[in-house]
Automatic annotation (TrEMBL):
Alphabetical list of InterPro entries matching this protein: ATPase_NBD, Type_II_PanK, Type_II_PanK_bac
Protein's name according to its UniProt entry: Type II pantothenate kinase
Keyword field contains Mitochondrion: no
Enzyme class of the recorded protein, top EC level: transferase
Signal peptide coordinates: none
Record EC number: 2.7.1.33
Molecular function terms, GO-annotated: ATP binding; pantothenate kinase activity
GO process terms (BP): coenzyme A biosynthetic process
Organism the protein comes from: Ornithinibacillus hominis
């Protein structure tokens, strides 16, 4: 490996590298930079590092590696476009939603991109609220618990407000996220985490679909570490398709779009 792309984020450090002509990926915790450096020193001590992300400067200060900074927004849009082509999805224009610790939303064309807006809602929200609910501190634990929970036991739905009458809008829409958490004593931590996942998913989807509507685009591509192995969040992103007329797209290596885009710098 003579070249490695690194996306050093607030929660995770993601790597992308070539092996026998194919791109492979690896992930470390941002709290364990020493493990990243050990891996680099053992497997590829002479590699050039193309680094992006909020913690990129922690790598550029290392004297033992040849590092080059890569613009974070260019990296993630380049990486997403590469992964779309790899999957044989030919979208000339799409909305890109990058969900890491927070969220950025881009309008991407075949030769340009624009960061339209962002939100503080994202993986950091899940980690913070997940800890407050469970006193645990593990992303995969939270995603598993959310998948096994029922958000309807914690969320206040439109039908809850209008019962026993039939509401004027779709009865299963969320009227208030976590709006029954203080009322339903039978709701579990799993149910509350399922509701938190809907807070995150519904908020991000509302922003993304507003951008898609303004740009008159249907494909919305979701990438970032928060989407990976998170079926509860993906379910939110797909379930409003008929109501809001958009096309959700998920990429196999979408969590590493930034690292892959950094790897592709100068190519």
């Amino acid at each position: 490996m003579n070249k490695i792309g690194i996306d050093a984020g607030g929660s995770l450090v993601k790597l992308a590298y070539y092996d026998h002509g194919k791109i492979h990926t690896k992930t470390f915790s941002s709290l364990d930079i020493d493990a990243v450096l050990e891996w680099l020193s053992i497997l590829s001590p002479n590699a050039s590092l193309f680094v992006t992300g909020g913690k990129a400067n922690s790598f550029t200060k290392l004297p033992s590696f040849n590092c080059q900074l890569v613009n974070e927004f260019q990296a993630v849009t380049r990486g997403a476009s590469y992964l779309l082509k790899e999957k044989a999805i030919n979208h000339e224009e799409y909305i890109l939603v990058n969900i890491g610790t927070g969220t950025s939303i881009f309008h991407v064309t075949h030769n340009s991109f624009e960061r339209v807006l962002g939100s503080g809602i994202g993986g950091g929200t899940l980690m913070g609220l997940g800890y407050l609910i469970t006193r645990k501190n593990d992303f995969q634990t939270f995603t598993t618990m959310a998948s096994n929970g029922d958000s309807r036991k914690s969320d206040l739905l439109v039908r809850d407000i209008y019962a026993p009458e039939e509401p004027p809008i779709y009865r299963d829409l969320t009227a208030a996220n976590l709006g029954k958490a203080h009322l339903n004593k039978d709701a579990t931590e799993h149910d509350h985490l399922a509701s938190v996942m809907r807070v995150i998913g519904e908020t991000i989807l509302l922003l993304a679909t507003q951008v898609a509507t303004a740009k008159q685009i249907k494909p919305i591509v979701f990438v970032g570490g928060t989407v990976t192995n998170n079926p509860a969040l993906k379910e939110v992103f797909v379930q409003f398709r008929d109501m809001m007329s958009y096309e959700p797209v998920f990429l196999d290596k979408g969590s590493h779009a930034g690292a892959i885009g950094a790897l592709l710098e100068n190519e």
